[in-house]
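Structure, all two chains, one model.
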Amino acid sequence: MATFSIMVCASHYANQSNQSALRFAQAVIAESHAINGIFFYQEAVTTANRYNHPPSDEPNITQAWQTLAQEHQVPLLLCITAAEKRGIIGPDTHPQASMNIADGFQVTGMAEFASLAIEADRVIQFK
Amino acid sequence: MKKIGIIHQTSAFNTSHGKEALDLAMVMSAFEQDITVLFIGDGVFQVMRGQNPEAIQAKDYLSTIQALPFYEVEKLFVCEHSLHSRHLNTEQLIDDVTSKTQEEISELMTQFDEIYSF
């Protein structure tokens, strides 16, 4: 059994690789490996916008990540610097009124990712 | 300690990749990892000297790239082939950047525990 850290850099909608990261994470879990964290960096922080609202006949990637996190206790972590630059606001950064982070996602720092990546056996980046 | 390769593949300022790759390098260096930063393809434009980001109201993170050796990130390598194919040479680059052949870079790639590309 190996422990994976996954870094997602691609936008939730404009890039297929965000979806590929999700499918990879599902495969890792199905093969009984562990994931110590999914880190959303660069454009991928938009995945955590709770107002993402695709038409009903298109996949809802935000919801799919939330389901993965719920079912398998995988932490969904956002880079705070990348998130703030792109208007994704968590509970600790701005007044609650402007908070738009979706449930199940946490705002953390790059340092959190670095420590996860250092512990992991494998780090995979989806850009 | 892990051997970490951070690869720049895009030119400066057109996208945020250069800045965000640099942010990752800085944090990894704070964790005392063994970091190599590579400039390949259009990434070589990140290390050209004499750029003036203020002229386009951009943040000057290039000076931080230049300061990487002070953060103990001393392995800054540029791809010689990428330079030549863009009619550039090492004299046009900032200090502390060393050029490597494609073969040397291929060899380096096999040594990293983790590779991040931007």
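The first strand of chain A starts at residue 3 and ends at 8.
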